[in-house]
Amino acid sequence: MTAYLEARPRPKPLRAVALLAAAMAVAFAVAVWRGSMASQSLQLIDSPSTADEAPRAAVQQRSSQQEPARAEASSSSGGIDGSSSSGGTDRSSEGSPADPFAAPTRLHGPQRKAGPLDPREWLQPYALERHTEYMDYLEGWEQAHGQNPQPAGELPQQQPVTFPTCQVWVNHQYRILFLRHAKTGSTSVLNWFGCEQGGSCAPLRRLDPSISAAKAERIFSDYFVFTSVRNPYTRAVSQYKHMRRTMPARPECAQLTSWEKFCAFPPSMGLACRHHPQCCVMKEGYVYIHLVGQARCMTTAKGGLAVDYVIWADRLDEEIGGLFAAINQRRPPGVPELPVPRPEEVPKFNVAARCEEESRRQTESYSWGDQTYVTLAPAESERHCELREYFGPKHPQCLAQLNHFMQADLRLLMGGPILNSSGSSSAAVGSLAGSSSSGEEGMDRR
């Protein structure tokens, strides 16, 4: 081997330089392409898909090992245990419904904000990093399981990063920020601030993610920050039903998705759109934005809460008065009082049908722009009237799988997972240690 290497002709210096330059040019082109993909990730969400488009949507979330750390640190700001230091309220024992999977979250009302939202979750300089890490995550899963695999009993790997970004909406006049999570009534909340049909006429707009981290920190410090949250189990069922409802009512499309497949790996619905774009009204990225966790998008880099106020998604009409009173109390001098919207006049979107009505439907419909599509209704085996049925004996793997996948949200919002379909919860709820009055002490999430 040594003789062989010594006998090989060595490249001339100019040729070596040329080869190096060519390699650098290729690397630069790849980096530019990936950066373009990351910057266009929102465009992959907001427009319908076509048969010849199977975009690789960007996605991301911090490593799964850091999810518990984040929720633990959040307990120090009152986020999990509802302690009085946060100014929040623990409503876990107040009027809980018979179905524990539909219980309200423990976070509610005023909170003590610990700092700004983690810049790595939404600012533009981190977009390429998030995109790359999520693509690797999806490709690793596909390499291990193939395309459109049958549901398996293994636990799904948690999302490593946030995709494509946490959504931060702003109104500078009233100095308010809304941290928007998909499938938490967020579109209805945006309508509260609109200028039509009963809104308060203080429109919210996306906050520019290209601002510096220092400017973002100042805005989070000076502005009133609120969010709407939802029981993660309720939200998971809503996520699945909504994304299935964006798939055309064709037999070949119905085979791509099921509640069991969703439980086994929720992003698999996005991968189905990648490989079968004719079966998705919306593009691949539309799925991933609906899977972004709530916990990541309402906490600081050290795990404290990044919000001043939390409302319940399932009781929006009851929440309006308290939220707007808090906003008006904090409004800048000289700014007129914000009128409280009239909930009976403000449009609501994606409101679930009653169980009896849903069970009779053979197809659903999904509208985008001026087009309406005939889409998939829930399968016969998935038409349940109680949420607990989605996690019961008919779907034996789903509870353990989604408990693992949604670990951070369950710890922050509910105090821990439900361990069985009868509603027994974790014995570790409320036992998190390392609390402090500021919510910023403890371990970093990276």
Automatic annotation (TrEMBL):
Residues 74-96, 423-439 have a biased composition (Low complexity). Signal peptide: none annotated. Residues 48-121, 423-446 are annotated as: Disordered. InterPro entries: P-loop_NTPase, Sulfotransferase. GO terms for cellular component: membrane. SUPFAM superfamilies: P-loop containing nucleoside triphosphate hydrolases. GO terms for molecular function: sulfotransferase activity. This is Sulfotransferase family.
